[in-house]
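Annex B. Sample input.
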Amino acid sequence: MIKRSLGYLPLLLLLSAMTALPLAILLLTSLVPDGTHPLDAARELTFIHYVEVFADPFTYQLLANTFVFAGGTLLLGMTIAIAMAWFVERTDMPLKQYAYIVIFLPMAMPGFITAIGWTFLLNPTNGVINVFIRDLFDIADDFGPFNVYSLGGMIFVAGLSIGPTMFIMLSSVMRGLDPSLEESAYASGANHSEVMGRVVLPLLRPGLLSIFIYFFVTAIEMLEIPLVFGTNANFNLLSVTVYRKTAGGDIDLPNYGLSSTYAILGLIIGFSLLLIYFRLMRQADRYAVITGKGYRPKEYKLTKFAKYFAVTFFVFFIVLKLVLPLLVLIWTSLLPYLQSPSWTALQTLTLKHYVALFNGQRFPLAVANTAILMVLTSACCMGLASIVAWVIVRGRGFLARTIDVLAFLPHLLPGIVIGLALLLTSVGTPLYGTLSVIIIGNIIRYLPFGVRMMTSVMYQVAAELEDAAYASGASRFTTFLRIVLPLVLPAFANGIVWCGSQAMKDVTLPLFLASTSNVVIAGLMWETWKRGNGETTAAISVMLVVVLLCIIAPLQLILRRKTQRIDAAFGAAI
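Annex B, continued. Sample output.
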């Protein structure tokens, strides 16, 4: 047993280097004077940055703004997700078999691109929708009536962006409700509202709260949408402040001490939410409803009007999240300069922005780097996640449990914290300013997802299959490669695609770790947007979304068909 546990030691050291070391560097940087490297032997620890941060009223306004933004984003996103999950999982909504495919399509539109699309639509001066409304109602004012550069505008776009992912998590929760509990309540004389309030909602509570906590951290770390709107909206957030203190500006130099201290605040929030999450999970068995007895979730019958409303709700969301932003981005990318749709503007359409991108040097370099980033991130992340999951499922002892904790730890860390920690860790090393450091950052960010995905599947693989391989003389590596991995290959392939698409569209890490040589498509988009070249940004955005749609749409069609076959087999069995 001791020898087997010692075999986990290299994996433990690797995970420690990936997670604990960057966090230690981040903490040290917050405790050393400005201009001092955290690993300098002659350093003197100081709390001057903490005094500066906590003594400044701006900090508390910053936290209040962040919580308001996160709360509003979650309220909108969860409202959308709950409605969609309920219609799909618990009602006889028409065309529900296509809902999963349709709802995954907006995930090809990164939040950064959605935000850019809505700036073209609702810019208060020349936004397409605002200009159309002013012309339609003959409004003389050249401002409004809508202003996307506001807290409401940021919450609107952010809520649309997290809605599909929240739907994915909520749908599995709603699918697991045992209908016998609801039927018993109805048989006892309870009406519909009483069943919803006293049976369904209490059963959903653990799942809803855990999802709320997960996405609260997601909203706090959100950087790209506040960066697009925040300056004009004059609404400071914690994530934007960490980035600006790290990047500096035209006048101010980068202040790593202050940025690290602000990042520590985000880390404290994440760990606090983790403690709440663990407390909720200790009580989760009180709400267990999936047992060995076969059952199907109760399906509520909708009225004719409700069916039309449900389908319209889905269509309206897809239009807001995907169709309108993508159409305005295509339109903008084909114009010499931004104009409202008209016959005159139609005659000026041009492909010069696309031609300029491919004729330049930066875009081909960004495409090549992004391809390398996607392949290496997805392969390395899922390869490591598979090994870690196998150790968690089959391992015993303190080292195996420690590996589980270290693999889960990045899930608590906002992307801005990981980006800043890697930036500070790589300074003075060969990794600084290379594509490798972005790849490492992506592996750290997506490892918890890969581990949880592979762990859930590996629990279903019987241990006697591996025991038979060991009895035949196979090594542990051979057993894993030829027995375990082929059995979990579908989940492994899904993780490969998910990690690759996430790495392709992520903006946070390229913003912190960008250099002249490691530019990627998402980072190039921010560069062109920051320079005020909206037409070029629109052209890059269109190409990125089209590629992601070509990846996500076929995958979801295949997965949905497989899921339907499994559900059909399960239904026949019960």
